[in-house]
Design brief:
The protein is of the alpha/beta class. It is built from ten helices and six strands, in the order H-H-H-H-E-E-H-E-H-E-H-E-H-E-H-H. It has a four-stranded parallel β-sheet with strand order 5-4-3-6, with helices on one face. The chain has a two-stranded antiparallel sheet with strand order 1-2. Helix 5 runs parallel beside helix 6.
């Protein structure tokens, strides 16, 4: 049976030849997930043999990653703002850049709202990453989380339940533009909408083009339509 170090070295070289960025880190994270340990723990277990069953699962993972499938989809999870969230191909993978939106919103809440309930609208909630992160850090918030995708809402509900914020978040399957016609009022609107222009979409990396939901990446127009509609809410 191969050892942990042997597997990491082999898979790193393979992913490197396939043009995968950070092949060593990818190899280690995938193996750590299979072995149910932290990535750094692998360095204490380099000489440990890996069972045939674990090797087979690892080969499948490495093959998928070599085909440009995002690491987060293979693992089925992502760490966002200190919270582990489930993800699959029905939702956009939460990016670290979006954590800035969470931080800024929490800053505004802290500075401008000292008491009372804070009502927030999350447009295009996807995995629920923004809503859940806000609720985990603001006990006075309640959120309406809107998305047009049944699959995305199912993932977001799962994440809300796993993070014990399901009682403070209301999921709505709808086009947010329809809500604009209602008399609903919010203290904050948060969103990470599709922002890639249609004519720029094909220039994106293969991980996005081949795996992430297109409707969560581009507005099929100039990349600004969601911002225009949100600002007019």
């Amino acid at each position: 049976m191969p050892t942990i170090l042997e597997l990491i070295n082999l898979s790193t070289g393979y992913l490197e030849k396939k043009g995968i960025e950070s092949p060593r880190i990818n190899s280690e994270l995938l193996l750590a997930d299979i072995l149910s340990c932290k990535r750094l723990d692998l360095y204490l277990l380099f000489d440990k043999p890996v069972s045939e069953g674990e090797v087979n699962v690892y080969r499948n993972y490495i093959s998928r990653r070599a085909n440009n499938e995002p690491l987060q989809y293979i693992l089925g999870k992502v760490d966002f703002y200190g919270t582990i969230l489930s993800v699959d191909k029905s939702v956009l993978i939460p990016r670290q850049e979006t954590e800035i939106l969470v931080e800024k919103t929490l800053e505004y809440i802290k500075n401008d709202f000292n008491s009372g309930e804070i009502k927030i609208l999350d447009i295009g909630t996807g995995s629920g990453n923004i809503s859940i992160s806000l609720l985990r850090n603001c006990k006075d918030c309640t959120i309406d989380a809107v998305d047009v995708s049944d699959e995305a809402i199912a993932i977001a509900k799962k994440n809300a339940n796993e993070n014990n914020v399901q009682d403070k978040i209301n999921f709505i399957k709808a086009d947010f533009r329809e809500l604009a016609k209602s008399d609903l009022k919010y203290n904050f609107i948060v969103s990470n909408p599709p922002y890639v222009a249609c004519d720029e979409y094909l220039n994106l990396q293969k991980e996005i083009l081949n795996f992430e939901p297109k409707e969560a990446v581009t507005d099929f127009k100039n990349g600004l339509s969601f911002y225009e509609d949100i600002s007019a809410f």
